[in-house]
Amino acid sequence: MIEYKTPTELLETSPQLCPTPIDDAFYEGAGEALAGADRVSSEVLGDLEGAAVELDAGSAVVITLLEGPQIVNVWAYNQADPDERIWHESVIREGIFLRRHTRVWGTMARYRPLLTVLEDTVVADPQLPAGQHHPYYGGGGTPSDWQFAGGADGVKTTWEQFRDLLVARGVSPAGLNEHLCLFQRSIVDRDRQRVEILPSNAVAGDRIALFAEQDLCVLIALSPYLDGSTPIAELGVPQPRPVRIETTERLVEPLPWPYPGISYPDMSRYLDDSGTRTTEPVPTPGIDYSL
Amino acid sequence: MSTYSDTPRKATDTVQTLPRATYPFDREFYEGLVARRADFELSNSHELTEIGYGFEIAAGQAFRLTLLGGPQILDVGFLSSEDPEEHFFTGGQMAIEGGRISRFTRLWGTPPRSRPLATCIADSLAYTPNERRTRDHFSYGAHCNAHLWHLYTGVHHRPCYDNLRYGFAMLGLHQRYIHDNVNLFQRGGYDPFSGAHLIDESDARVGDHIEFYAETGLFVSVSICPNSGGSDALRESWSDTGPSDPVYPILVEVFDTGASPLGWPY
Predict the structure, then answer these.
(1) In terms of DSSP H, where are the helices of chain A?
(2) Which listed residue, A109, B2, B70, B81, has the most CB atoms within 10 A of its CB?
(3) Of the partner residues B98, B161, B235, the one whose CB lies closest to the CB of residue A11
(4) How far does the CA of residue B236 sit from the closest CA of chain A (Å)?
């Protein structure tokens, strides 16, 4: 039986704006299973072409730094329905920085967890406690941003890597939105509310493991920003540090969302018979829209 | 290069962060727009009688959102009317401008164009500083949805996702066009230590307005958020009494500015 704090209890105690019940014991168990799990695939990514891995629900992807700190950008979508993808509204439930057991939530209409952090070995320099790793909103990663930062010509940005991976899979890149910036160290400028980049504290051997709550396609791109320590205009053509990408066998059957006892909207207001969001230009039925 | 000062939790501490991209900004052009605001010609005006509203605006026009009844959070989504798959992009916005929105803040769109979609040219709010450094108008809060209302109150209520859907439906667009949005007249910020999203009571008062100049033709959808003016602990809004909190009307006005956009890139 899942034991968790009720939403009301969470509202009273959580620092997050919209906290969500979590079965920590379940994820502890999944983390323990990770250590002894067989690796189904393993590859080394060492260039700016990106990689895509297909994850079965209940399995995990483990990303390990091989030669030192390197920002690794990650984006993911539901294999069966690319319209369902990770989305930054996750932040109001989980905070900006991913930590162990942070969940990465997906888009409407299901608005459910897609990935959960099982393991994170990075240790941030305690001299600056506000500087933390693995932020959402870590950076645009766009060609425009690279150009205006004085980046060298011909360098494939994160967005371009993701775009090409999607196009190769017959998925429209129009759905690309904010991505996770793993191993990136960041700090929030409280006045501008901008997530600034600091030199990463990650070292060779550090790793992060993400548990798949659904069948997902996970896109992985090495950032041309490298480890965040060198101004873009001084980088020249960046040589990223390689990472190992491994996927595991199924660790455990994921928990369903919602948890038992959690009130959940009527999905027929949003989904069609195929189980995907409708494309009729109509309002959500059953709502009084008058002021 | 920017610096960060860590106060008041400990002695001032500055760190060097990675220099960010510098985007050109023709301040003279926008100051000229601001100076001529009184001469803008009203094209149309609509006092909202619904909690969702969608409208189209041409490049070079401006639109103004004015609070009529009290502090009222507005979630606003923007799409390019030339290509509705081009939309406001929070990730890019956070990297370029940060999360704040006020006069001369540009609202940036998705790649590959990565261009400004709109520029704020007026913001009447009188900001009162606080220790948490929260401030009205930000670009990263996304929008409430039926899931959150069900989770905390057990009822569907009238969340922003549905209101935005209503507004886009008025423009012949379906729900998959709902993407990132800005949160206007909502006071927020991030705690740099916990990374948590903070919400405080808005500074907004009746009559306050915010105005945007359209850099390109836009489809705009506005949601009157059921959380009205927020609170010093938004959680109160999620309580059983939350669904009965009042929401307030706003006025949407569209103006002809007489000024064509500069285009992008310069």
Answers:
(1) 7-13, 24-36, 90-94, 143-148, 158-168, 232-235
(2) A109
(3) B235
(4) 9
* B91 phi, psi to nearest 5 deg: -60, -45
Q: Among all residues of chain B, which has the CA nearest to that of A270?
A: B175
ipTM confidence score: 0.96
Per DSSP, the residues of A118-149 read EEE-----TTSTT-EESBBS-----HHHHHHT
Interface test with B, best of A89, A134, A166 (most B CBs within 10 A): A89
Domain ranges of chain A: 13-255
Measured CA to CA, the distance from residue B85 to residue B161 in angstroms comes to 18
The tens digit of pLDDT for each residue in A11-56 reads 888 888 888 999 999 999 999 999 999 999 999 999 999 999 999 9
Cβ of residue B104 closer than 8 Å to a chain A Cβ:
no
Does the pLDDT value for residue B4 go beyond 50?
A: no
Cβ within 8 Å of residue A105, ≥6 positions away: A86, A87, A89, A90, A93, A94, A111, A112, A113, A114
Provide the 10 A C-beta neighbour count for residue A76.
26
Q: Which two tokens stand for residue A16?
A: 């997050």
Compute the nearest-CA separation of A43 from chain B (Å): 29
State how far the Cα of A23 lies from the Cα of A26, in Å rounded to an integer. 5
- A87–B142: do the CB atoms touch at under 8 Å? yes
pTM of the model: 0.95
Q: Does B99 touch chain A (CB under 8 A)?
A: yes
How far apart, in Å, do the first and last CA atoms of chain B sit?
23
- Is B17 within 8 Å of A197 when comparing Cβ atoms? yes
* Phi, psi angles (nearest 5°) of residue A233: -65, -15
Residues of B (220-239) whose Cβ lies below 8 Å from A: 224, 234-235, 238
- Any idea which residue has 């609202």 for tokens? B107
Instruction: Show me where the domains of chain B are located.
Output: 46-256
Q: Give tens-digit pLDDT for A57-74.
A: 999 999 999 999 999 999
Which tokens sit at B123? 């913001």
- Residue A203 and residue A65 in contact, taking contact as beta carbons nearer than 8 Å: yes
